[in-house]
C-alpha cells in the first residue's frame, strides 16, 4: 500500500476482452501492483471513478471502453470516526467540531470514507430512519493537516444565514501558527490577490486575476528560529495563511508544500503547524453571540514548549 500511495492516479480504459469483469477484479488485473484486496480498499474509500463518477461497489460489472480512474493520493490513511469528544457545540441548527489534523474536511477524488463530511453523515444519521439523510451545510473548510474548529449548519433554516455571515465577513476566525524565523514587527497584515498554480496545487499572489485575501497577525513570542503568531483572516481563501507567510519569508513549520522546514534542532514537524483555535459569530437563528475556543493539539503544544519554555 505504501508503494501505491506514491502513485497519484491510475488511469485505465477497459478493453473489449475485459468487459463483463467485476470492477475489483479488473483493477487487480489491469493495474500494476494493485492486489484484489487493495482494489477493494480503494473502491470502499471512494477513490475509484468510472466514466467520471465515483463508484463504491466492488461488484460493478465493467464494460468495454469504460474509463477507470483510481486516485491514490493520500493513502494509506486511517478512517476517521467522529465521536462526542470532537463535538464542541450542537443544537438543532448548528454543529461545531474540533477537527484533528490528518482528516479531509470534504470528499476528495481519492476518498469519501474517512473524511469529516462522511463522518458527520454517520454521526448524525438517525438509526431509526436510515432512509433519511442528514442535512449538512458546509460553510467553511480546513486543509487536511490543519486542526481546529469548524462549524456546519445541520438544518435548512440555518444554512442561508450562516453562509451569508461567512461570505460577508461577519465571522471571526483566529488561528495559532508557528512560522519559521524571527518576525520583526509585533503585528502586521498581508493583503494580495491569490490564485491557484495548478501545476503544484498551491496558491500564490498575482498582480491581477486572483481573489482578495487578507491575513492579519499578532506576534505572541519569537526567537531566532521560530515565531509564534495569532492570525485572523477576514477572508477565507484556500491556503491563504500558508501562502502569505511563505511569501513573506516565514513559511509555517512542517509545511513542505510552501517550503516550510520539516526539522529544527532535531524536532520533527509532521504537518503544517497551524490550528484554528477560535471561532466567533452570531447564531443564525436566535442571534445569540457564540464564541468557541480550542486548545493547541499535542504536537503544536510540544513545539511551543520546546521553543518557548515560559509558554509551555
In N-to-C order, the SSE pattern is HEHHEEEEEHEEHEEEEEHEEEEH
- Total beta strands: 17
Task: Please estimate the helix content.
Answer: 10-25%
Mass-distribution shape: globular
Uncertain runs with pLDDT below 50, 5 residues or more? none
Beta-strand proportion: 25-35%
Question: How many helices?
Answer: 7
Summed over residues and divided by their number, the pLDDT gives a mean of 91
Distance between the terminal alpha carbons, to the nearest Å? 38 Å
What's the main sheet like?
A: 11 strands, mixed
CA-based gyration radius: 22 Å
Q: Structural class of the secondary elements?
A: alpha+beta
Report on the structure:
The protein is of the alpha+beta class. 20% of the residues lie in helices and 31% in strands. It is built from 7 helices and 17 strands. It has helices at 2-5, 23-30, 36-45, 116-124, 156-167, 240-247, 298-307, and strands at 9-13, 48-50, 53-54, 67-71, 87-90, 94-99, 137-138, 147-153, 172-180, 187-197, 202-206, 211-222, 226-232, 263-264, 267-268, 274-282, 289-293. The strands form 3 sheets. Strands 5, 6, 7, 8, 9, 10, 11, 12, 13, 16 and 17 form an 11-stranded mixed beta sheet that branches. Strands 1-4-2-3 form a 4-stranded antiparallel beta sheet. A hairpin with a 3-residue loop joins strand 12 and strand 13 (226-232). The longest helix is centred in the middle third of the chain and has 12 residues, at 156-167. The two termini are 38 Å apart. The mean pLDDT is 91.
Amino acid at each position: 500500500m505504501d508503494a501505491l500511495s506514491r502513485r497519484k492516479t491510475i488511469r485505465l480504459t477497459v478493453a473489449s476482452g475485459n468487459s463483463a469483469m467485476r470492477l475489483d477484479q479488473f483493477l487487480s488485473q489491469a493495474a500494476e501492483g494493485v492486489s484484489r484486496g487493495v482494489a477493494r480498499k480503494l473502491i470502499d474509500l471512494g477513490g475509484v471513478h468510472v466514466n467520471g463518477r465515483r463508484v463504491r461497489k466492488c461488484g460493478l460489472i465493467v464494460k468495454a471502453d469504460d474509463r477507470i480512474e483510481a486516485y491514490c493520493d493520500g493513502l494509506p490513511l486511517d478512517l476517521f470516526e467522529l465521536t462526542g469528544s470532537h463535538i464542541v457545540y450542537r443544537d438543532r441548527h448548528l454543529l461545531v467540531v474540533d477537527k484533528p489534523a490528518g482528516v479531509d474536511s470534504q470528499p476528495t477524488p481519492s476518498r469519501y470514507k474517512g473524511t469529516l463530511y462522511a463522518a458527520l453523515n454517520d454521526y448524525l444519521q438517525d438509526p431509526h430512519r436510515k432512509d433519511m439523510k442528514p442535512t449538512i451545510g458546509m460553510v467553511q473548510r480546513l486543509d487536511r493537516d490543519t486542526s481546529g474548529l469548524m462549524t456546519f449548519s445541520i438544518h435548512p433554516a440555518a444554512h442561508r444565514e450562516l453562509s451569508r455571515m461567512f461570505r460577508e465577513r461577519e465571522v471571526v476566525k483566529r488561528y495559532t501558527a508557528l512560522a519559521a524565523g524571527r518576525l520583526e514587527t509585533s503585528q502586521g497584515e498581508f493583503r494580495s490577490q491569490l490564485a491557484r498554480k495548478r501545476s503544484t496545487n498551491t496558491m500564490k499572489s498575482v498582480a491581477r486575476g486572483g481573489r482578495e485575501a487578507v491575513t492579519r497577525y499578532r506576534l505572541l513570542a519569537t526567537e531566532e528560529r521560530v515565531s509564534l503568531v495569532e492570525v485572523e483572516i477576514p477572508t477565507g481563501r484556500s491556503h491563504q495563511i500558508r501562502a502569505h507567510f511563505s511569501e513573506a519569508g516565514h513559511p509555517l513549520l512542517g509545511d513542505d508544500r510552501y517550503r516550510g522546514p520539516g526539522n529544527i534542532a532535531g524536532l520533527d514537524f509532521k504537518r503544517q503547524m497551524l490550528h484554528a483555535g477560535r471561532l466567533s459569530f452570531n447564531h443564525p437563528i436566535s442571534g445569540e453571540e457564540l464564541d468557541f475556543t480550542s486548545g493547541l493539539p499535542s504536537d503544536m503544544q510540544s513545539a511551543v514548549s520546546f521553543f518557548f519554555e515560559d509558554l509551555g
